[in-house]
């Protein structure tokens, strides 16, 4: 069955509205067109403020926050406008589109692994009414992909590994590694996922630190970082701040709140670490955490020596070089990790081949389209933990256009706290 689906992702970094229209025909995946519209700093700040306010609150408490409804509606309208613009610019008949795969904006995430450590109940909070988006575009929307997995005791993130497997036929056995706001990876062998997990922050520190001190959205081409040098004491502090998460067994699911961004920035500024040195160290740490996570992969899972990169974070040459160096036995390593990194190099057996996926652009947006396809086809998303459970786990909720609707009760997803 051939399906044409629009995937949407705004991501934790809130850098842009990303859209891709993809055709799925059996095992064939083809992108028809794509669209991206950067967010301005005002919108990024409003979302960041909301995320801080929403931390730990229940669904009802979030909905009562001053300005929540207005910001929610602005968020959905902007996405709908972009979908309508993309279709118009590319002369796409919206009646030919089977669905929109919509992620929403994550405000809080407390998966079972984190809840167990903290002694509380798991929950996940994504903002975004699929019904409102369907009404504004006139296209069926599939959304809220994380609630069911989390309510069944699974992490709910990352969801991308099966999509990596769907596009990996030409790559063979490999490690797919996403460098986004958070880094995550999937080990693909013989077309199936052996393990998929979050690793830790990638762009999170660098982007926010650069925005905090300049008018720029990120460190383009690592211009600031390349002008600085690695601060080993700061590197140690970065790991110490998030140690509970970084040392947690795989698979695990991360959230920017776990990385103690504000406390880290306060530390950097209190120690008068030069701006360029701080940026350099943040960028080095991105590659460091990505490599460190691979050292935690269970021994029974073979590590392929081919690594396929996707996500905008890998366009930062300093972060990418630190990752490459650390896997090759070079680079600066904290004393406590010397043995881990030596063992990791031995498991890789030879210097890994690192390349960029031909599908690197809009990977996370396309993931949402792929998830929507599986919902429409009533199929279990092929995460190892889903398959091994023996349960049929079909992610997502479907909203069909109802133009007369004016009140929306799905602004927060179903597995939110409370």
The total count of strands amounts to 13
Query: What is the overall pLDDT average?
Result: 93
Q: Report the biggest beta sheet as strand number plus sense, adding barrel if it closes.
A: 6 strands, mixed
Strand content: 15-25%
For the largest beta sheet, what order do the strands appear in spatially? 3-2-1-4-7-13
Kindly report how far apart the N and C termini lie.
Answer: 39 Å
Query: How many helical stretches?
Result: 17
Radius of gyration: 21 Å
Structural class: alpha/beta
The amount of helix comes to 25-40%
- The H/E string reads EEEHHHEEHEHEHHEEEHHHHHHEHHEHHE
Overall form: globular
Point out poorly predicted stretches.
Answer: none
Q: Descriptors for this entry?
A:
418 residues; globular; 6-stranded mixed sheet; alpha/beta; 5-stranded mixed sheet
Walk me through what this model shows.
Helices cover 40% and strands 20% of the residues. It contains 17 helices and 13 strands. The model has no long low-confidence stretch (mean pLDDT 93).
Secondary structure elements and pairings:
Layout: E1 2-9, E2 16-25, E3 28-38, H1 41-54, H2 59-63, H3 68-89, E4 99-102, E5 105-110, H4 112-118, E6 123-127, H5 130-137, E7 141-143, H6 147-151, H7 161-166, E8 174-179, E9 182-189, E10 192-201, H8 204-213, H9 223-226, H10 232-241, H11 243-246, H12 261-270, H13 275-294, E11 306-310, H14 317-327, H15 338-348, E12 353-356, H16 363-376, H17 384-389, E13 397-399
Parallel strand pairs: 1-4, 4-7, 8-11, 11-12
Antiparallel strand pairs: 1-2, 2-3, 5-6, 7-13, 8-9, 9-10
